[in-house]
Structures are given as structure tokens and as C-alpha cells.
Design goal:
The complex is a heterodimer. Chain A contains three helices and no strands. By secondary structure, chain A is mainly α. Chain B contains five helices and four strands, in the order αββααββαα. A four-stranded antiparallel sheet of chain B has the order 1-2-3-4, with no helix packed on it. The chains are: A mainly alpha, B alpha+beta. At the A-B interface, α1 and α2 of A face α1, α2, α3 and α4 of B.
């Protein structure tokens, strides 16, 4: 069983090896370029920030706090809270106006025959019917 | 509600990154430092042990911060793509810090028997080359999310 497993692992290793060998002419220069800039960056960091974790802790804390704040303001599933509050207020006001307007229109007395608004009058000014 | 859900997701992923990028490497290095074989202590010849620990912790912290920002951001958002790219770049520094600190070429000496060495620097080199494509993918994501911003936003509002 162990030998079978080893054989299987050998096949996988061969396949991965073949893929990597095929890709090596592309990957190697890219990897070298990556190594260059990473080495320069780490060298710079080692010279200037080596030995003090404070800055990294501060960066981490700032990222987490700013992440929380940004999420509160712009959660993503609706327009941002700060800006949408104003819009919601306007929408609420619109609704109130519509309701009030509707109530006023419904409360006006109308002529039974023609539907003309007559208010407190007994006789309709349009058709002359008594109400 | 969306904000709370995003932040919970962010904290979960941050915890995962804290464990995988800081806790496990620190435990492993501490364990290697105190490793004994049949009662004989291994002389961990890596003199820059403190340097490895420092850079692993330093970059680990930055990765965790970026991970929180990335995973707490809405899906397909530009800020998520940008911080994912930053996280990948810091990840490169993190991985390379192992090699830079000599952790990819460790030599163990068993007193009275000899030594053995572990050289994984070539593996890290190949990994770096492949990692470049991840960077390209993240850059593509930023461009894609920026171009299709309105459509993504509309779809998100509908959902």
C-alpha cells in the first residue's frame, strides 16, 4: 500500500515537474523580476523599519478601524448611510404630503349628481341639483 | 444589516489570517528551536531567528489588516479589489521574508551525528513566478470592477 502511494506521488511529482519545466522560460524571468523588487523593498524596510513593530501594529489597527468606518458609511447593499439619510427624509416628507393631500381631497363635499365639489353650499353651481 | 454582515465576515477572515500568517509560523519556529531528536537537542544554526520572527509578525500584521479591509468590503467592489491587490503584494514580501531571513535554507546539526539542511529557496522562486499571475488577476479585477461599476452596483441593489 505504501509503495502504491509512493508510486502515485511520483506520478504527481512528474506531472508537476513537467508543467514547471514547460513554464520555466516564462516563470523564471518573471520570478527573477519579482525577486528584484521584493528584495529592494525588504532591504529598504530592514534599513528603516527593522526592529520596531510599532509601525506595523499601527498600520494593522488603522486598517481595521478604517475598514469598520468605511463599512458603516458604505455597506454596499444600499447607498451610503450618511448620504441616504437625507434622501430617506425627503421620501418620508413626500409620503406625508401625499397622504395629507389625499385626505383634503376626500374630505371635500361633492354634488351627488355631477360630482362637482360644492363645499358647504346646498345647491350645485354646475348642475343646479340640491344636495 | 449589510455593514454588520460584512464586518463579521471581515473578522472571521482576519482570524484565519492571524492563525495562518502569525500564530502557526511562530509556533513552528519556536518548536524547531527547541526540537530534540532522541533526547539530543538540534542546534538550530539559523542565527537570524529573531529576524524571521520579527518580519513574519510585521508582515503578518499588515496582511491581517488588509484581509479585514478586503473581506469586509462588498463583493466586486473597487475597494475590495484594491485591498486584495495590496494584500497580495504584502504577501509577496511576507513569503520572501522567509528566504531573506534564511528560513528557506535551514541547517540542523545533530550533536555527534552530523547535520542535515533544508533548502526550499528554489520552490519559493517558482512560487513567486506563479504568484505574479495572481497579481495580474487582481489588477484585472480592479479594471473590470471600475469599468462595470454601474452594472455591478445595480445588480447589488437588486439582490
Amino acid at each position: 500500500m505504501l509503495l502504491q502511494t509512493m508510486g502515485f506521488l511520483q506520478v504527481i511529482a512528474d506531472i508537476i515537474g513537467a508543467i514547471l519545466t514547460f513554464l520555466m522560460p516564462i516563470i523564471a524571468p518573471i520570478g527573477a523580476w519579482m525577486v528584484d523588487w521584493i528584495t529592494i523593498t525588504i532591504g529598504f524596510l530592514q534599513q528603516n523599519l527593522g526592529g520596531d513593530l510599532t509601525l506595523f501594529i499601527v498600520i494593522c489597527v488603522i486598517l481595521i478601524i478604517s475598514g469598520i468606518l468605511v463599512n458603516i458609511i458604505w455597506p454596499g447593499d444600499r447607498p451610503g448611510t450618511i448620504f441616504s439619510k437625507g434622501i430617506e427624509k425627503f421620501e418620508d416628507l413626500d409620503g406625508k404630503f401625499e397622504k395629507t393631500e389625499g385626505n383634503i381631497i376626500n374630505s371635500i363635499r361633492r354634488c351627488k349628481d355631477c360630482g362637482n365639489p360644492i363645499g358647504d353650499a346646498e345647491v350645485c353651481s354646475l348642475c343646479g341639483a340640491r344636495n | 444589516m449589510g455593514a454588520v454582515k460584512n464586518m463579521v465576515r471581515g473578522f472571521i477572515y482576519t482570524s484565519i489570517y492571524v492563525i495562518t500568517t502569525i500564530v502557526i509560523p511562530l509556533i513552528t519556529f519556536s518548536w524547531l528551536f527547541q526540537l530534540t531528536v532522541e533526547g539530543i537537542p538540534l542546534n538550530f544554526e539559523q542565527q537570524e531567528y529573531q529576524s524571521v520572527i520579527f518580519w513574519v509578525t510585521a508582515f503578518g500584521l499588515v496582511i491581517c489588516g488588509c484581509a479585514f479591509f478586503t473581506y469586509s468590503s462588498p463583493k466586486k467592489s473597487i475597494r475590495r479589489a484594491v485591498f486584495a491587490l495590496i494584500q497580495i503584494l504584502v504577501n509577496c514580501l511576507y513569503i520572501w521574508s522567509y528566504r531573506f531571513s534564511g528560513a528557506t535554507d535551514i541547517e540542523f546539526t545533530i550533536v555527534g551525528f552530523g547535520f542535515f539542511s533544508l533548502d526550499i529557496s528554489q520552490m519559493v522562486l517558482v512560487f513567486m513566478g506563479i504568484y505574479f499571475f495572481t497579481i495580474v488577476l487582481k489588477v484585472y479585477n480592479i479594471i473590470d470592477f471600475t469599468i462595470n461599476r454601474e452594472k455591478i452596483r445595480e445588480d447589488r441593489m437588486k439582490a
